[in-house]
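On clarity, I found the account of how folds are encoded harder to follow than it need be. An entry of this sort, consisting of the sequence and the corresponding backbone structure tokens, reads as follows:
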Amino acid sequence: MNKALDQFKQLEGKKLDKMPSKAGNWLAGTLLEIEEDRIKVSYTVSSEMCNPAKILHGGVASLMMDDVIGMGNFATGSEYLMTSINLNVDFLSSAHNGEKIEVSAKLVRSGANLNHWDAVITKESGRIVAKASSNMIKTHVTLSDLGF
């Protein structure tokens, strides 16, 4: 039984604004679906998330994908904290204030010490806003040491 996945399953359809990540809470996404190897979260682009050109800021888009990958990785059930060692992002189109977007992430490879994830941000039209890949490495810190 995967306790972490079970905890996340209870949050499907709910706003993610009471999570351990304060940055993720600020994003205030809604968990659409989660399994051990994939996750999907929706967001509405706010003016605070935009750059001076009034489009989704690249740093915020990167934060969204990193946060979703982190939640997805947590739901894999590892007993150890895993942390990002890289995040490679391609920005492909824009999203504007008020637009709804989805961030989907998929576990590509799960290893003894390293998990590789791919993520994509899409608009309702299906147009890709950005995509990313990330490697998560196992630390020596157990999740139970952190109170999880």
Remarks:
- The mean pLDDT is 96.
- The chain has one domain: 3-146.
- The beta strands are 30-35, 38-44, 80-91, 100-110, 114-123, 128-142.
